[in-house]
């Protein structure tokens, strides 16, 4: 027994140092997107590659295999830690260290080139580095798949146990109901729009107020600006970003609520799991379930919109809508648009379907980087009925491909599906959610999320995490029923 415990303890000591170094690498990535001088990009790329070399060496240390074989777990937590360490160890062994370092270096450089290409509407400036990212990720996918589907292999980084065929089936189930709902909404009475001036600092002040109400702890985090909003970190250092458009306060406020959903998940994991494989969200699909339920099913609910309407009028004066109901309609307007992150709940998943098909084709070699803009524009016009007008409204709008996140996009829709299941369960168990939201207080729902899901971190695999919280296997039904009820009311 003593030797067995020693093997587990030694393995976990090794793992905690690895997790700490990975946190440093993540914080370096946060700095690159928020504060790093533009001219620092080449050096930062080398720094990221060096960190990845160290992490890869630690993750493939042959002693890990010996410790795993010798360890005999004594409880659920130890079993889960060993499961996750073994999964990551066996996966990392398949990827050569020089390839892992080169991916880190190239994606660090590509991120800056994407930002400049997007700013300058210069698609051609981004294509060469995108081609290099795609080449490297194809190579990694092939190494991981060992003869199987390379896209499936890459998906495991974001949704362990997920498969492209299952995602495609999910999209097939959702598409017809979403398209029909969009048609009915677009044929209905147009929603009102806000008007007025919304100063940057006032938006950010309100964003911080809302973030705290949704449970974000500023003692262990901070809010900054970025081109593409994101959340970064885990445990005692979890940071969020937003962006500000002085003509559109919803961009800032709802991006903030979305990222707080991610951050609250990380901040609320049981402290006993800090710097272990269980000390973070279990998958990006489950992560997205938090951000989408916070942003949409709480933040865009009629009850919360009633409170937000009054608060915005207090801060900004007249905002161009005459009633709480009109404000609710403005927040949930169904409109044709280019930008995924600004899309309404009806259109959002249709954006994800487009990206899923294109990046799957890229990794499988059915599409090359130099054809991505034309393929995107053709598919977008077919799906949404109007043409892309410029690259920043097309394939340059998202940061994901520049940083190599192929296999990530389908988890956004999976997160919406999970969110539908979670909020249906929360509303079944709690009667006071809307009454609290009407006062600007999301805490009954966010506390339920913490107690039933967030505190467990990576203790259970993704599907088990949702099933443990809701009591039922996840399905698309609750999400589609929620959307049809909500938007059927808004667009009768």
TrEMBL record:
Pfam families: Peptidase_M32 (PF02074)
Keywords associated with the record: Carboxypeptidase, Hydrolase, Metal-binding, Metalloprotease, Protease, Zinc
CDD domains: M32_Taq
Binding-site list for Zn(2+): 258, 262, 288
Record's cofactor remark: Binds 1 zinc ion per subunit.
Superkingdom as given in the UniProt entry: Bacteria
GO annotation (BP), single: proteolysis
UniProt GO molecular function: metal ion binding; metallocarboxypeptidase activity
Catalytic residue positions: 259 (proton donor/acceptor)
Record's keyword annotation contains Zinc: yes
Family from the record: Belongs to the peptidase M32 family.
Protein name in the entry: Metal-dependent carboxypeptidase
């Amino acid at each position: 027994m003593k030797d067995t415990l020693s093997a587990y303890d030694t393995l976990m000591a090794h793992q905690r140092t690895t997790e700490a170094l990975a946190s440093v690498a993540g914080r370096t990535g946060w700095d690159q997107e928020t504060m790093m001088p533009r001219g620092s990009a080449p050096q930062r790329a080398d720094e990221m590659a060096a960190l990845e070399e160290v992490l890869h060496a630690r993750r493939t240390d042959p002693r890990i295999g010996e410790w795993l074989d010798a360890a005999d777990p004594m409880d659920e937590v130890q079993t889960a830690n060993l499961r996750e360490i073994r999964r990551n160890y066996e996966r990392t062994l398949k990827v050569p260290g020089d390839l892992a370092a080169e991916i880190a270096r190239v994606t660090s450089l590509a991120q800056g080139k994407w930002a400049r290409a997007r700013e300058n509407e210069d698609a051609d400036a981004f294509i060469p580095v995108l081609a290099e990212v795609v080449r490297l990720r194809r190579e990694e996918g092939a190494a991981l798949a060992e003869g199987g589907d390379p896209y499936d292999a890459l998906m495991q980084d974001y949704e362990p146990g997920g498969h492209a065929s299952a995602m495609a089936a999910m999209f097939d189930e959702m598409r017809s109901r979403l398209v029909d709902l969009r048609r009915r909404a677009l044929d209905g009475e147009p929603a009102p729009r806000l008007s007025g001036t919304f100063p940057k600092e006032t938006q950010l002040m309100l964003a911080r107020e809302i973030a705290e109400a949704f449970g974000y702890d500023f003692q262990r985090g901070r809010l900054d600006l970025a081109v593409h909003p994101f959340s970064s970190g885990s445990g005692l250092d979890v940071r969020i970003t937003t962006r500000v458009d002085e003509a559109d306060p919803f961009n800032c406020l709802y991006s903030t609520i979305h990222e707080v959903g991610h951050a609250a998940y990380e901040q609320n994991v049981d402290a006993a799991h800090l710097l272990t494989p269980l000390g973070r969200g279990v998958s990006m699909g489950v992560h997205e379930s938090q951000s989408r339920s916070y942003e949409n099913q709480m933040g865009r609910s009629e009850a919360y919109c009633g409170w937000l309407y009054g608060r915005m009028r207090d801060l900004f004066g007249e905002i161009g809508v005459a009633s709480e109901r009109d404000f609710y309609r403005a927040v949930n307007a169904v409109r044709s648009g280019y930008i995924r992150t600004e899309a309404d709940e009806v259109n959002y998943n249709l954006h994800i379907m487009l990206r899923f098909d294109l990046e799957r084709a890229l990794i499988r070699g059915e599409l090359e980087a130099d054809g991505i803009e034309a393929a995107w524009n053709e598919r977008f016009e077919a799906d949404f009925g109007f043409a892309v007008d410029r690259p920043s409204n097309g394939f340059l709008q998202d940061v994901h491909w520049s940083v190599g996140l192929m296999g990530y996009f389908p988890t956004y829709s999976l997160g919406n599906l999970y969110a539908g299941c979670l909020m249906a369960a929360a509303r079944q168990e709690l009667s006071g959610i809307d009454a609290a939201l009407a006062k600007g207080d999301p805490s009954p729902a966010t506390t339920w999320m913490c107690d039933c899901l967030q505190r467990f971190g990576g203790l259970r695999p993704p599907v088990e995490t949702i099933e443990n919280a809701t009591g039922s296997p996840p399905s698309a039904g609750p999400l589609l029923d929620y959307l049809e009820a909500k938007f059927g009311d808004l667009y009768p």
